Amino acid sequence: MAIARQLKAIATTQIRNVAAIGSNIVVANANSDLTSALLATRTTVRLRSASGTRELPLENFLVDTYRVALNADEILDAIRTLYRSLSLSQSHCSISNVHSLISTM
Amino acid sequence: MSCGLRMLTQADGTIVEAALAFAGVGAIPKRATETEHVLHGARLGDAETLSRALTALARETELPEHMPATVEGLREYRHSLAQSLLFKFYHNVAAAVDAANALPALRFPPREREVSSGSQTFEDPSTYVPALSLFHSLTHSHSLSHLWIARARLFIMEHCT
User: Fold this and answer.
1) Which whole-number Å values give the CA distances from B146 to A13, B122, B129, B137, in the listed order?
2) Which CATH number does the domain A2-91 belong to among 3.30.1380.20, 3.50.50.60, 3.30.465.10, 3.20.20.70?
3) With contacts defined as CB-CB under 8 Å, which chain A residues touch B5?
């Protein structure tokens, strides 16, 4: 999957070993290497507080640079994203094709 | 700057769904919805599809004069890079759907990187002469600015005393 390939291009192995996808989203960096990929794959985030959970599309969760729609009593609990394991070379055999590309400069 | 680009196509090249997200061309990573709209229902093989999509993308990734500190600078570079990435992606998809008519030079294999390592060597700190650095030859090119400061000071000393 393209996201897995993209992850290999972010930071270094040592940093990736202690990093988490959720915190990468919550930091809301304008230049994020991962959020752009997740935006392209219909990602939603689940937010949990003591009173329950709510789910938001990632687009709506990202408010501004370093700002997300997370209340003080909430944590990011889960993310859901589209998953297709088709590679570019396999995809043209099927009726519907999924293509993805993620790039970091 | 980064992007996530996804397209769902039929075997004949009709684009059923396009999701194009870019980071580094605004305050927050965002979808290029206008461009997605242009691509939706268009055919990959049509000559106009790509140019119409690139025009739309150029319009909606126009960076404001004053950007947040994290994306400041390189406005033109970011603006053109977004179009370049879509251009490459489009050709990759076109090649997957119709290999016979694709441009072979536009296939981009994923980048592989080894685990990184590094080392740094420090000089003996007792040899440093910090107070007199202005009048020593400065071999470090980054420190050339110090020379200019030194010259400016000499100029002031000569003309203002």
Assistant:
1) 38, 21, 15, 11
2) 3.30.465.10
3) 40, 100-102
CATH number at residue B83: 3.30.390.50
ipTM rounded to 2 decimals: 0.78
Contact B19 A62 (CB under 8 A): no
Per-residue model confidence as pLDDT tens digits over B81-119: 899 999 988 988 888 887 676 666 555 666 677 787 888
Q: Which residues in chain A have their CB less than 8 angstroms from residue B87's CB?
A: none
B40 C-beta neighbours (distance < 10 Å), count: 14
Q: Same structural domain for residues B59 and B93?
A: yes
Contacts of B97 in chain A (CB under 8 A): 92, 97
Residue B15: phi, psi to the nearest 5? -85, 115
Domain membership flag for residue B145: yes
Q: Which residue ranges make up each domain of chain A?
A: 2-91
Task: Give CA–CA dist A30/B28, Å, rounded.
Answer: 4
Q: How far apart are CA A102 and CA B25, in angstroms?
A: 15
Q: Mutate one of A16, A24, A34, A97 to test the B interface: name it (highest B CB count within 10 A).
A: A97
**Judgement on whether residues B6 and B64 belong to the same structural domain of the protein:** yes
User: Is the CB of A30 less than 8 angstroms away from the CB of B26?
Assistant: yes
Query: Would you say residue B120 lies in a domain?
Result: no
Backbone angles phi, psi at A75, to 5 degrees: -130, 155
